[in-house]
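Please, structure for the following, as tokens.
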Amino acid sequence: MAMPCLETLPEGKMVAHPETSPYLDAFRARAVAAEPSWLAGRREAALGRFAALGFPTRREEAWRFSDLRPLAQHAFPPASAAGMAAPDALAPWRLAGPTHRVVIVDGRFAPDLSEIGTLPPGAWLGSTARALAERPALVEAALCESDDAGAQPFAALNAAFFADGFVLALDPGVVLEHPVEVIHLGRAATPRSFHVRSAVLLEAASRASVVETFAGAGAYWTNAVASIRLGAGATLRHVRVQEEDRQAIHIALVRAALAQGAAYEAFALTIGAGLGRHDILVRFDGPDGVCRLDGAFLLRGQQESTTATFVDHAAPGCTTRELFKGVVDDRAHGVFLGRIAVQQDAQRSDAQQLNRNLLLGRRAVIDTKPELEIFADDVKCSHGATVGDLDEESLFYLRARGIAEAEARRILIEAFAAETLERVDGTVRERLAAHIARWLAGAAA
């Protein structure tokens, strides 16, 4: 199959986006695995789309605040094999209590470190590679048409190269009592990219919690895409922690589609990676759905991170609540892009979005852009954003009671970020609070 990797210039010459060349070469040189013909065709089409688009630039509105030079200036060829990790490497990221644990090292399932445990009837959990062999329809559901037709080049590159990930599927009415714990570890001695493709598919009235953690060491690029589909009345709680190496690059896309009465409650904590971006796309396909998106990003040094959300109210009577907070120190750059669209037929929509930020360093930068697009009449919608420093009166109050300035600042920052944790389950909330406390301890040091 010929790949549409080139663009035609007016004078008839052909040119490819130069930053795509290493990935096109790696695709042609890769060892072709035995896989269904439909998947091979999708990979070819997705790579062609990536080649046609190239890397996003600041001329594109959705990327105008992001500096992708660290990604464009160096090639990150896809990792060809999984790295090694000792069991004690999981200790800082493990959840307390029983879980269904999936560990992915360098983008591939690590069976020796995983412990899926006993699942109830009607539940399926495993690696994407295993699902491809045993239940290929689940993997096909994780691939979206926009991978090879939309304007998301990194999702297209992921579709071309993904080797593994995780898949969770629940039949109607199935409830997982314990959370699914997914730990992604990067272990790259040389620059490599890990393309992870995952799916969560919950049928009607089923319920589950998924806690994903991304961590590691080295100068690598994690490119993760997850597809979430919730049936009527299904509920998913999805927590995502990104605490990768400061040399690492992390780009992730989560797509969620909600049927009638479904609920998606998500929390994202961003602490790591030198360059990071997390896109969350949610669409209400049926009425009376609920979406809760909360999160916090804590940045220092020269970190750059973007959180971009888009919630599409395409059905009536749905509710969205968003609260994201940013804490940015030194010369770091934090970005929040939040958009909620209420379509013409989505009457009785109720949507609220808020982004609050603390600037702790004189050279730190925050860009925030909350947006509402409303095409319906009967709605309740609001959005807002704030950027400021710590409250001087609160700081004075603590210092007047004998608390040192550094400790007083730590207390106020911790309280500021902790507001976003209020709706997270208790055990998971404790783990998230520990991540934040570790970040604050580093700031004090």
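The chain is about 20% helix and 40% strand. The CA atoms of residues 135 and 387 lie 48 Å apart.
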